[in-house]
Specification:
With 275 residues, the protein is α+β, with helices and mostly antiparallel strands. It is built from one helix and twelve strands; from the N terminus they run αββββββββββββ. The protein has two domains: 54 residues; 217 residues, Beta Barrel (Porin), CATH 2.40.160.40. β1 and β2 form a beta hairpin.
Length: 275
């Protein structure tokens, strides 16, 4: 009997000791996991900081965004949108081309048909300041203009840059040519103009990004002849190259025909491809 009791006590002691060792090992393992997570987070932050100091990528970087809205029932509508931006940098030079277009129908009748393109060249003579040359063209079938075009030099200032956010300001002087759909002797179709532009983006989370673009363009001779543009976008990464998001655009023209509206406002959902 004594042997049985002693054996039971010995086994119990061994079991308790083994349980204590297992618990101790689990505590140590959890502590090691937390330490590894901290090291990983620190390494990722360090990697992003180092990457932000690299010279501009000399490969062509392209973004393509596609949007589509379809409505059925009391109203039949189809609206397509395309936004593409290609950039290339080498040494102190950078070149970008942007294309933004929309096409739509309502009840089988065309109601949207616009395209906007801009070519931008920059030369960074110091890290945060660039000389730019810009050429742009806009055609909006349902506006007061057959077309709008402009070309001219400018300066771009990289005001602030960090791992998570970037802010830049740009100013340009243009030679502009606008052709009205309805001719008016009071309107100067060839004129000097200036534009102020703001670009801002921030990574709110690892996979969530906010972008803001805003610009004001006006004639030097006629302060009533001005244009405002704003684009706000929120996008989230769904894979290495694909993102999904929403954007809201305001395209305002101060001088329009009596039958036209001054502002075009567009809310759209899009799928973005970055490569």
């Amino acid at each position: 009997m004594k042997k049985i009791v002693l054996s039971t006590l010995l086994l119990s002691t061994l079991a308790l000791t083994a349980s204590a060792e297992v618990a101790k090992d689990q505590v140590k393992l959890k502590a090691d996991i937390e330490a590894a997570k901290a090291e990983k987070s620190k390494a990722e932050a360090s990697l992003k900081a180092l990457q932000s100091q690299l010279p501009p990528n000399e490969q062509v970087m392209t973004t393509v965004r596609l949007g589509y809205i379809n409505t059925t029932g009391n109203s039949e509508t189809d609206t397509f949108s395309l936004y593409a931006n290609a950039k290339k940098a080498w040494d102190k030079h950078n070149l970008s081309f942007m294309l933004d277009g929309q096409y739509g129908k309502a009840d089988g009748k065309e109601n949207t048909n616009k395209v906007f393109a801009e070519l931008n060249y920059g030369y960074s003579f110091i890290e945060s300041l660039s000389i730019t040359a810009v050429a742009g063209y806009k055609n909006d079938k349902f506006s007061s203009y057959n077309y709008q075009a402009y070309v001219g030099p400018g300066l771009k200032w990289l005001t602030y840059k960090s791992v998570k956010q970037e802010l830049s300001l740009e100013g340009n002087i243009f030679y502009a040519q606008d052709e009205l759909q309805i001719q008016s002797p009071d309107f100067d179709e060839n004129y000097g103009a200036y534009r102020a532009k703001l670009l801002y983006n921030i990574n709110l989370l690892d996979n969530l990004k906010f972008e803001q673009e805003a610009s004001y363009k006006s004639s030097f001779n006629d302060s009533e002849n001005y244009f405002l543009f704003s684009r706000s976008a929120l996008s989230s990464k769904i894979s290495d190259i694909f993102s999904a998001g929403i954007s809201y655009k305001i395209d305002y023209t101060n001088l329009v025909a009596a039958s036209k509206k001054q502002s075009d406002n567009t809310l759209e959902a899009f799928l973005s491809l970055d490569y």
